[in-house]
Amino acid sequence: MSSALSSTVEGLYLAHHTWLTGWLRRRLDCPQSAADLAQDTYVRLLQAREAPQLVEPRAFLTTVAKRVLCNHFRRQALERAYLEALAQVPEHLAPSEEDKALILETLFELDRLLDGLAPRVKRAFLLAQIDGLGHTEIARELGISLATVKRYLHKAALRCYFAL
C-alpha cells in the first residue's frame, strides 16, 4: 500500500470517523453495527489501489459507506433466506453449527463473486450449481432457450474463474 494512500485514509479517519459513525447509526439504529460498518468503510479505502483526490471528503465517504451498507443489508437478507430454508429441514438432517457457518460464508462469497451479473444469469447459475438442475430444466424454469442457458452459465462461470 502506498504511503500516500495510507496517510489519506488516516487523515479521513481522524477528521471524519465520528461523523461517519453517526451517519451510519442513523441508518441502522444500532451503534455496534454502525461502528463495524464505519470500520469496514475505512478498510475498503485501505484496499484501494491509489489515493483519490478528494474535494468533498464526506460525500466520498458517504458513497463508499452506502456501498458497504448495501452489502450489509444484502448479507442480512441472504442469511435470513438461508435460515428460513434451514427451518424447513428436519432437525435430524440439519447441519451442525460449524457447517451452518461454513455454508453461510460460502453463500456470501458466491454472492460477492456473482455481484454485477444480471439477475437471470445469477438465477441460472444457482439453479445449476445449488439445485442441480440440467440445462433443459433451467430453460423451462426461466422460460428461455437452451442456447441462452448455456450462454448464461458460461458468463457466470467466467466471472467465478476470473474472480479467483
TrEMBL record:
Enumerate the InterPro entries for this protein: RNA_pol_sigma-70-like (IPR039425), RNA_pol_sigma-70_dom (IPR014284), RNA_pol_sigma70_r2 (IPR007627), RNA_pol_sigma70_r4_t2 (IPR013249), RNA_pol_sigma_r2 (IPR013325), RNA_pol_sigma_r3/r4-like (IPR013324), WH-like_DNA-bd_sf (IPR036388)
| Keywords tagged on the record | Sigma factor, Transcription, Transcription regulation
RNA polymerase sigma factor 70 region 4 type domain boundaries: 108-160
Positions of the RNA polymerase sigma-70 region domain = 12-77
**One of the record's GO molecular function terms:** sigma factor activity
GO BP, sorted A to Z: DNA-templated transcription initiation
**SUPFAM superfamilies, A to Z:** Sigma2 domain of RNA polymerase sigma factors (SSF88946), Sigma3 and sigma4 domains of RNA polymerase sigma factors (SSF88659)
Q: Belongs to which family?
A: Belongs to the sigma-70 factor family. ECF subfamily.
Q: Which NCBIfam families match?
A: PRK12528.1, sigma70-ECF
Protein's recorded name: Sigma-70 family RNA polymerase sigma factor
Organism from which the protein derives? Pseudomonas mosselii
